[in-house]
Amino acid sequence: MTQQTHEPETHEPASAPTSTTTMATAPTVPTAPTRSTGTPTPLAPPFPPLAEPRPLAEHRVWPRTFHDRLTAPLPGLKALARFAREGAVRPGAEGLADIHRLPCAPAPLPRVDTRTLAVTWAGHASWVVRIGGLTVLTDPVWSRRILGTPARITPVGVPWDTLPRVDAVVISHNHYDHLDAPTLRQLPRDTPVFAPAGLGRWFRRRRFTRVTELDWWEGAELSGVRFDFVPAHHWSKRTLTDTCHSLWGGWVLTDAEGQRLYFAGDTGYGHWFSRIGRRYPGIDLALMPIGAYDPRWWLSDVHCNPEEAVQATLDLGARRMAPMHWGTFILSAEPVLEPLTRVRTAWEKAGLEREDLWDLPVGASKVLE
To answer: Is the pTM of this model over 0.85?
Structure first.
């Protein structure tokens, strides 16, 4: 297995053309307040400049496997044997005792205009993002249960029938808790979908007609909003025979005003965050996973713990962080309320402003002022 450590400027997408088109940059905010003083400081330009947007829904040919993008080896027989011997995949009775305390406060979606950035947490990695006049769903999972896990421990924060028209969907990777066929079946088949390289055929088999597949560091535009696909420390698998046959990653959304949101998807901690921050400066909000991390020896390569999520936010240079990927499905052994208490402690220890931690209850919204 080859570890993917290329700098962004040297990585050539799998299906990139042999000649380079004119480079273009997405809108960026010219200045940003420092965390300590609030004094505006100039933002560095993207490095390298962002590439010209790819055409929407273009047909592309991808390699059969993306194993070379892994940043850590997948578990081998020795690790699997250890997991079978001692691995716990669910918290004990004491860890489950706080389920009734999990924050859940569904409320109507806020009113927005084309210049508003707002987010609503539906649960797990599912957000209703309002940016540049668009309503975008991230990794939409509205099902009560997903394959291999107990049912939700908190309800879906946004009833499906209360959603406005969905203008686009972004998918981080093909694991069942991020790519949910029953939920996606409820969307019109002409809904624009932004997906990782190699995952388009899954959507086309289900008759989606506007699927845009992207490699890392590529972007596309829809109605003035740019969608960029960026690396993550994770992997992909949906069946017994398709390990790493499609890519995985996060998304950076940038509107015409330069407002910028980062959706991490599912990821461990590592070198990609600082590189994403350098290439996409001025991130206003990072949606960061903080759960499904215990046992650490088993999950550290693919899932951030709360402290790592805070550090990743700093690496990104993001101004705010909204935790996700916890309090919805029981995927691992940590106590159900622990991710929230740990992320609040880590945020405080880092000396960050409390109002910049958007630790929302399931169903709650926040609007960027």
So the answer is: yes
